[in-house]
């Protein structure tokens, strides 16, 4: 299943990395790039997702543009080596020394090529707006009158969508659409949950927000309509 433009996502991260002082500790540099603060488990989790981007991007590039295999192999080898030799407790230069200008140039070309086939992405402002709206809905649900079990499932499900959006630059569209699918799919198995979503003002606001998010993803990533089931599209009134 295609998932937007992983080369562009990887490139964005590396360009941000280039702007960081190479003398800082590698762990601190990645925490800044990945917005993990002092949360070490979250840092390792997100860093592992960054490390998978080169494989995802390389596979897609050579599938769609086989004549780019040599250039793709060059930047993939550079990125993979950088992750292998970096010292998280040493200077960030231990990573960046392997990311040459040629690596960036070849990866930029790959990102531009993929963009003709797999355009993306949600803008930073769009992501921020949706995260804010979803967090407000979480607060509304918590302070509302839903049954305890419904309240727990709704808030947990919305938080998963927030996390997927917060990590959009790492995971792309699929984690977002998967989270929406799971949240709405639960309504088929729980009548109280279904009533909360479809028969309350709060539920209506949740569905409207998710529908807006689904529409935004469709514009940013045309493959998105194929990632949501027909049933969920109808539930959201999207596409």
TrEMBL record:
Top-level division of the source organism's lineage: Bacteria
The protein, known as: Uncharacterized protein
């Amino acid at each position: 299943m295609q998932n937007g433009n992983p080369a562009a996502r990887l490139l964005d991260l590396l360009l941000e990395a280039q702007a960081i002082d190479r003398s800082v500790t590698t762990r601190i540099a990645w925490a800044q790039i990945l917005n993990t603060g002092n949360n070490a488990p979250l840092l390792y989790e997100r860093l592992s997702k960054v490390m998978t981007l080169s494989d995802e991007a390389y596979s897609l590039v050579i599938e769609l543009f086989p004549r780019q295999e040599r250039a793709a192999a060059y930047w993939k080898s550079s990125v993979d080596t950088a992750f292998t030799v970096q010292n998280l407790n040493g200077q960030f230069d231990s990573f960046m020394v392997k990311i040459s200008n040629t690596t960036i140039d070849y990866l930029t070309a790959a990102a531009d090529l993929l963009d003709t086939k797999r355009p993306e992405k949600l803008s930073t402002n769009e992501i921020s707006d949706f995260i804010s709206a979803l967090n407000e809905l979480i607060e509304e649900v918590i302070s509302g009158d839903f049954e305890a079990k419904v309240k727990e499932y709704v808030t947990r499900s919305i938080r998963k969508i927030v996390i997927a959006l917060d990590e959009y630059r790492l995971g792309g569209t699929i984690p977002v659409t998967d989270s929406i699918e799971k949240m709405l799919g639960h309504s088929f198995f729980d009548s109280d949950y279904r009533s909360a979503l479809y028969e309350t003002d709060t539920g209506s606001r949740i569905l409207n927000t998710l529908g807006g998010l689904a529409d935004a993803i469709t514009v940013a990533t045309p493959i998105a309509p194929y990632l949501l089931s027909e049933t969920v599209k109808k539930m959201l009134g999207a596409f």
